[in-house]
Fold:
Amino acid sequence: QVQLVESGGGLVQAGGSLRLSCAASGSIRSINRMGWYRQAPGKQRELVAVFTSGGRTNYADSVKGRFTISRDNAKNTVYLQMMSLKPEDTAVYYCNYINNYGINYWGKGTLVTVSS
Structure:
């Protein structure tokens, strides 16, 4: 089993910054395929930023240049640095991990609210 615990969400004014963290524990071999998704009210869950199996990063067009994903392999932790936040970034942000068998795991989510 894998547990993912997100932290760092909160309320911020437009133009501000937040840093999300996701700590993975349990049956973790590596965090090669791990990243962030978000779901805004009334919308489908969407990719924000992820590490792919090839060691690359993939960002949603809407966050490129503003968000940065990083990781600490020793701590099995992935981070999402969010800058120049906009009201449309308001959503529940979910951590995602995919193990070597292709099984997806999700955290419970952390709410990010950006006020205008």
In short: The mean pLDDT is 95.
